[in-house]
Amino acid sequence: MRLDHSVKQVFILPGLVIAMTMSGTHWGLGLAVRAVLGIVAATLVASSNYVLNEMLDAPFDRLHPRKANRPAACGHVVYPVGYLQWISLGMAGMLIAQSVSRGLLLSVFVLWVMGCVYNIPPVRTKNIPYLDVLSESINNPLRFCVGWYIVTSAILPPVSMLIAYWMLGAYFMALKRFSEYRQIGPEAAGWYRKSFQYYTEKSLLNSVSFYAAAAMLFFGAFIMRYKFEMVLAFPVIALLMAVYFDLAFEEDSAVQNPEKLFREPRLMALVTLCALLLLTLLLIKLPWLTALFSPSK
User: Fold this and answer.
1) Cα 196 to chain center, whole Å?
2) Which end of the chain is less packed: N or C, by CB atoms within 10 Å?
3) In terms of C-beta density within 10 A (0-12 exposed, 13-18 middle, 19 or more buried), how is residue 235 classed?
4) pLDDT digit string (tens) for 57-67?
């Protein structure tokens, strides 16, 4: 179930906070209960996807220097029981989501479906270059939707933020691919993951540049329409992305193991600063800033 990966559910919180701000909803016991149920539902569905991934990736994980120690790769998993666990976790997550809102149910259902698309042949997008990154990182905007639909039943979150969230997730995922490819080596990496047969270090870094630029472009579109004060967070966000980029070049980098990123004090300090800054800017108004950037007459 990889419960240590539950730290990724932190990507739910911006959706929750932005939905509260835009809808005028205040924190209370009812919303707290909905938030707990929503996070539990998303965690169960994500764990369902991890169970499926563990079993279907076992033959390839045996070729990886670190993943070869996973239970399925070591032959410790009883597959019929594993498939039962996969279905049970997914159903449990969806039942809990249904008790909160229809939007939340749809969000976790699509999250589960994307796990199937990513892992199950003949589609198995994890074997297709670029689609492997894009189909995996779409989990980020889906987590944003989880946070959004915990709070409100509005039809759709801001599309510009969803795309920015998607591209930011693709930036992180492409750097993970780059770090793995660089450490394993081109030949061994190609045996481990089919998409690596088409990648090079240069093509991966080119894609990283594209995802970073696209993420900031659509985040800029969001703040221009909804909350211009957040433009002040751009330097901190850029520094955070630069530090993450630097980590991808380290041997056995935490970028390959996102659940271990909390061990990187420099990165965690920037993440905390960035979160506090974005939250503050989301809640305050600075009319002088809008006037400063207004077109000259």
Assistant:
1) 21
2) C
3) exposed
4) 888 878 777 78
Lowest mean pLDDT among 18-27, 89-98, 105-114, 167-176: 18-27
State the burial class of residue 121 (Cβ atoms within 10 Å of its Cβ: 0-12, 13-18, 19+).
Answer: exposed
1-154 has which fold? Tetracycline Repressor; domain 2 (1.10.357)
Residue 120 is classified by DSSP as S
C-beta neighbour count of 93 within 10 angstroms: 25
pLDDT above 90 covers what percent of the chain?
A: 70
**Helices and strands (H and E) in the chain: how many:** 13, 0
Mean pLDDT for 141-166 is 93
Asked if 137 contacts 118 with a C-beta cutoff of 8 angstroms, the reply is no
pLDDT, residue 256, reads: 85
Please name the residue that has the structure tokens 């221009």.
224
For the chain, the structural domain boundaries read: 1-154, 158-297
Q: In Å, what is the CA distance from 7 to each residue of 10, 12, 67?
A: 6, 10, 19
pLDDT at residue 190, rounded to an integer: 77
CA distance 71 to 177: 22
> Tokens 């915990």 label which residue?
150
pLDDT attached to residue 240: 94
Taking the CA atoms of residue 96, residue 101, residue 102 and residue 106 in that order, the dihedral angle to the nearest 10 degrees is -60
Phi and psi torsions of 5, nearest 5° = -80, 0
Phi-psi region of 193 (alpha: psi -120 to 50; beta: other; left: phi over 0): beta
Contacts of 25 by beta carbon, 8 Å cutoff, 6+ apart: 19, 31, 151, 152
Contacts 24+ apart (CB under 8 A), 225-230: 225/158, 225/160, 226/22, 226/158, 227/21, 227/281, 227/282, 228/289, 228/290, 228/293, 229/281, 229/282, 229/284, 229/285, 229/286, 229/289, 230/278, 230/281, 230/282
